Amino acid sequence: MIELISKSLCTKCNLCVAVCPTNVFDKVDGSLPIISRQSDCQTCFMCELYCPVDALYVAPEADCSVEVEENQLSSTGVLGSYRSVIGWNPRRPLSDAKDKSYKMFEAMAQSEGIPMSPPTK
Amino acid sequence: MSRVNRLDLRKDLELNTYADVLVIGGGPAGTWSAIRAASEGASVILVDKGFCGTSGATAPSGTGVWYVEPREEARQKAMQSRYSLGGFLAEETWMRRVLDRTWENMNAIASWGYPFPLDDQGQPHLRTLQGPEYMRLMRRRVLQAGVTILDHSPATTLLVDQHGVAGASGVNIQKNQNWTIRSSAVVIATGGCAFLSKALGCNVLTGDGLLLAAEAGASMSGMEFSNAYAICPKFASVTKTAFYIWASFYHESGELIEGAGSQRGRSVIARTLLSEPVFARLDKATDEMKVWMRQAQPNFFLPFDRAGIDPFTDRFEVTLRLEGTVRGTGGIRIVNEACATDVPGLYAAGDAATRELICGGFTGGGSHNAAWAMSSGYWSGEAAAKYAKQLGSKRAARIGTPLDQASAQARSEDNLGLSTDDVVNAVQNEVMPYDRNLFRTAERLTDSLGRLDSLWHYIRHEAMPTGTALKRREAQAMTAVSRWMYHTALARKETRGMHRREDFTAPNPNQHHRLITKGLDDIRIETEPVKAPLGGVLL
């Protein structure tokens, strides 16, 4: 779930408020947005992708809130890491062009014919 | 403040307007629908409960697409591939036209500049789309087409008059502003229902559009095919079952679970989970495949990297998250090639509509669903625009009545005091357990329906709804969907597609038909024949 809006990085652009599909954030006049409805977060990581300054951190735990330490996230390079790998950080190329899904599909086709089958047999 | 002033203020706060076509939902189906309707010259408004571009199952994920070159041999193979898995309920004419449409639409996406990867021969590979980039592009195309987008604006009721559907009303939850959009046609593209299971991107998918359509008199089809579950690390939200083809599954002791697998062995995982935790490790991936997997779906690795788990060498606990009708195939019944519903002026597209026509009673997600979303979106938008045009110059003068006013009059005196969370939990307790929804019996379905039917009666007629109206409405929709699912599952006394009955373990040739589900309070089931089986042969 969303755990952090970095006070030092956030520019109050409120893009996260706009793009969150489950309306987790609230805009606050003259201040940083706040996480108002954390339990509504669906852990989809979309806010992190859209944040232009890597000020957000979504912890992978989907069902419970966890403690996070901004200094530690920052020093280990976790902040902005997903945006970087997807290539939405302007310093990195788009990942779409490197998409190797077709290699997986080829292997799947060779192994069992189709990607997935029903939970039967 | 005088009374008159207050009324004026409220009027200012409300958005009241007209559009030829109103599209409800801004995922792949809704965006394709809006773009196509606008290209026919219609005025179009798209409302999304969340944000068009991030909402829904596609945006945070990646998806394969049923994109098959127009060669007969390749098309035959594609049509055969899931035909038996789907219980022979797909129709050849629909599969062919979806394959044709998907071919055209994917080529359009390429021409719009989507950065497709190049394969080993240096050819663009158009069989996969990365959700964030695909949906960012679609939002841009929707706006370029002149469509107005209202984000964070769930529809709460359809408007109707004697001619059919005439728009919808809802609320912008960020502006706390009511909206009413009168329209000549409405396209429901709200996705399926995953019951707030936190399967990736699925928590906006609570079946709202199915309830809107049913209140207007639309029927459902294939609601028994609603028991999809995805493999997921227990702590996380990233549901990517395909990756687990390279996994082995283990007991807590480290001993291998015989027969467990992502494909044919998912039921073994489910049965084991009923009594003990299950662990997985992706130990079948070659070094080469490990690199490809990271490049195919970076988000698969996100939870692992952040939790300090190496999924190729560490064993991690897994669960099965319910995907309900999102990767099931049931939804609003489609009556013709325009993706019209039973109600004049109302169309359905994407996961909100039944996908049985192209995949029968089974889909693995992605692929067929992605192809269906862009095809049905395209056709519904085209048809909705033409329908609006045909209504003539006085079409904007229609004033529909909100459907929820009618149901509001029927309030009972009962008030059990159930909070919205109580209602959601009560529904989840019936639809999430593997031994109820995945492994079905008449006894357990009937048992669940006893509670779900009374819950529906309560939430539909409660004297004093509590909590926010939007969440209450979602709880209502989930309750409705769960009842359609289980009433229909009870009626299909056989095992077919993903629908599994432990008391009827084999397919029954006498039940080779679709099941149509009608009604809100009294649910009725009818049958509908499969008109165009593959190769013209009924199996």
TrEMBL record, chain A:
InterPro entries: 4Fe4S_Fe-S-bd, 4Fe4S_Fe_S_CS, Fe-S_Ferredoxin. Keywords: 4Fe-4S, Electron transport, Iron, Iron-sulfur, Metal-binding, Repeat, Transport. Gene3D superfamilies: 3.30.70.20. The keyword Secreted does not apply. Pfam families: Fer4_9. The keyword Transport applies. GO terms for molecular function: 4 iron, 4 sulfur cluster binding; metal ion binding. It comes from the Bacteria. This is Ferredoxin family protein. It comes from Alicyclobacillus acidoterrestris (strain ATCC 49025 / DSM 3922 / CIP 106132 / NCIMB 13137 / GD3B).
TrEMBL record, chain B:
GO terms for molecular function: L-aspartate oxidase activity; steroid dehydrogenase activity, acting on the CH-CH group of donors. PANTHER family: L-ASPARTATE OXIDASE (PTHR42716), L-ASPARTATE OXIDASE, CHLOROPLASTIC (PTHR42716:SF2). The active site is at R266. Residues 20-225 form the FAD-dependent oxidoreductase 2 FAD-binding domain. It comes from the Bacteria. Keywords: FAD, Flavoprotein, Oxidoreductase, Pyridine nucleotide biosynthesis. Belongs to the FAD-dependent oxidoreductase 2 family. NadB subfamily. It comes from Alicyclobacillus acidoterrestris (strain ATCC 49025 / DSM 3922 / CIP 106132 / NCIMB 13137 / GD3B). This is L-aspartate oxidase. Pathway: Cofactor biosynthesis; NAD(+) biosynthesis; iminoaspartate from L-aspartate (oxidase route): step 1/1. The keyword Metal-binding does not apply. One of its GO terms (biological process) is NAD+ biosynthetic process. Residues 430-531 form the Fumarate reductase/succinate dehydrogenase flavoprotein-like C-terminal domain. Its cofactor is FAD.
